[in-house]
Amino acid sequence: MSDNYGGRDRERNDSDASSIFSGRSTTTAPTEWSASEGTQTETDNDLISIMSSIYDSTHSISSSVLNYHFENGRRYHAYHEGKYIMPNDLQEQNKLMLVHLCYELVLDGRLHLAPLNDPRDALDIGTGRGDWAIDFAEKFPSTQVIGTDLSPIQPLWVPPNLAFEIDDAEDEWVYSTQFDYIHTRTLCGGIRDWPKFHRQAYDNLRPGGWLEMQENEAWFQREDGTCPQWTNLFLEKLDEASIMSGNRLNVAGDQKQHMLDAGFVNVRDEVFKLPLSTWHDDSRMKEIGRIRGLAMNQGVEGYSLALYTRYLNWSSGDVRDLLAKVRQEFNDVRNRMYITVHVVYGQRPEGVQPIL
């Protein structure tokens, strides 16, 4: 955890020109593409040429990874296009920054709840902007950290013990080392075969290593468990569409059992309820509600736009009309709405062979 926790304003260039990837990836310098035309600009070509000269021969640039997909005014990943329903544009990146800050507050500055002891190798799956991976690498400077994602949106300047890679967690894992710690955050909606995912995580941990998943439920509600009218409609349709897509969003509560089924031991599921506005009486929870509410305002469109238009045949205008009503409901402090987060972690037992 950096010393200026809670008020960090880490300098970064949020354009995609600020990414670097290790040799396992075929991409080094992602670049910005024209949202209006979906084509590469002359500036982009110049940037690729410049960035290509920076890195050695173990790195190369793949235009297929940089050729982002644009849909309904939002930008999506190109690598394994269509697998993940969340966009990767600046609006989504701003949401990820707010979510990272919110987790810092919720966990009292801790980056993990699993009881780690000087890990040698760590893996962050679905690293997004790389905020968590950067903080973790700074906290454990002797740990070799890898952050993976479908989108090359991470910054160029990172701790020397951190490398970012373009990878799909649903592919076969071919890492050259086993890990002492594997971390995920908000990966729900990105995995179709959860038993396979947990089996691969188990097999790629050293005996005694930990898997930790920090996942929020894709459902929010009042304190009494009910939902306002438009929120209830929105969530029911969101769940329906995500099930149709094969990547159900609302599976955070299932992760503990998946870990147990894969053979993990010492499994714990720690649950936190986060306000979605400033309705809470406690000052700390009020601040959490302010930040999580800002993130939800930024992110609720990203969760739903692709799912509603691709699988429910809604128009983008109808989706945004519904979202305006949903935002009004969770921003209304009288509704006292919250979202539930599960921090689930478990250990691969010592001296036990992988479950095949």
TrEMBL record:
Matching SUPFAM superfamilies, A to Z? S-adenosyl-L-methionine-dependent methyltransferases (SSF53335)
Bias type Polar residues, positions: 16-42
GO BP: methylation
Q: Which domain of life is it from?
A: Eukaryota
Q: Does the keyword Transferase apply?
A: yes
Keywords annotated in UniProt = Methyltransferase, Transferase
Q: Where is this region: Disordered?
A: 1-42
Q: Which residues cross the membrane?
A: none
Q: Does the keyword Signal apply?
A: no
Here the segments flagged for biased composition (Basic and acidic residues) are 1-15
What Gene Ontology molecular-function terms does this entry list? methyltransferase activity
The record, for Pfam families, names:
Methyltransf_23
Q: How is this protein named in the record?
A: Methyltransferase, putative
This protein's species is: Talaromyces islandicus
